[in-house]
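$ fold --in a.seq
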Amino acid sequence: MKKVLAISSVLLGVVFLAGCGQQPVSQTQPTTSVPVTQQPTQSNTSTTIPIDWQTYTSMKYGFEFMHPSDVGYLSPEGGAFLGFLSDQTAKETNILILGKKLSSSSIESEQILSINSGLENKNVMMQEFIENKDLFDISDIDINGIKFKMYALKNGIYNGYNKAYLFENSKQFIVIRFVDASLANQIISTFKFTK
């Protein structure tokens, strides 16, 4: 009986020592991964464009944007409402000033934004920004894959706007000036080149 007890004690000791030499076993539960969708980053806030907006296309200058149907173009001299953006005259101009009529019976209007385009006007348009560069914070901005220089006025309003986007390459020069407001930002968020 002493032999059995001794052998049992030795076996029990061997099993105990063998167990102490094992590597620790992880007690963590398996996890399931949740897919993460990365949203593309944009310079302006995401906006929903109403379904009844129309598209303005400038074949001459190769760009387009969407706008509310009651937005038209204004006279560069005085800002009178001249007509709607579907007019042929609006499609050919290199200075497009967008606005809304203040009432249906008048030509008085409220300016939303202006778009100047064409390489022939580049030097004149750039002069304003060069001479007044200290008034602006200048940074890069991306709108629908188009790289613009953004000129944000540090204080107040200058010549009717407080923000401007400039685009330039060997074929195009475009300046979009506006007062930073919801409608102007919505319209600009739809801007893209057609050629």
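$ fold --in b.seq
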Amino acid sequence: MNRRSLLRVIVLGVLLTGFVGCGKGLTSVEGVVNLDGKPVDRAAVSFIPEGGSGQSPSGTTGPDGKFTLTTGNDKGAPKGNYKVVVTKTEALASSGQTASNPQDMAAMMKKAMTAKPKSLLPPVYGKATSTPLTCTVPPPSQPVVFDLKSGG
């Protein structure tokens, strides 16, 4: 085998190894989050593995409440049972104040950075220890629908 052929075999082997690792055993998961029957926009959806070990797939809802899970940079979620955490916080709005000097600007920035964002969903859905939401991957049907209630 000449050098050129050997180089082709090595490059092909490296490429094939990379492609074999791309699937990573992930299952595509799509879902919808509703609050009192209305889609929730810009909510963070996290699947927390039961037992606490492993990666946590996550996604963000769109205006129609739909999300697609990713694990790291890869689309999908590993097979298993999950607690589902859904959070959405209010963006810190500008108070309309302006700073006339650097000290006032620093004080405004400190206040904005230390302010606790307000949750826009019932807190029961925001922690793995309290959420009633669960999902098995692969799910029996898709999209997976999570109907949240204002009362928790």
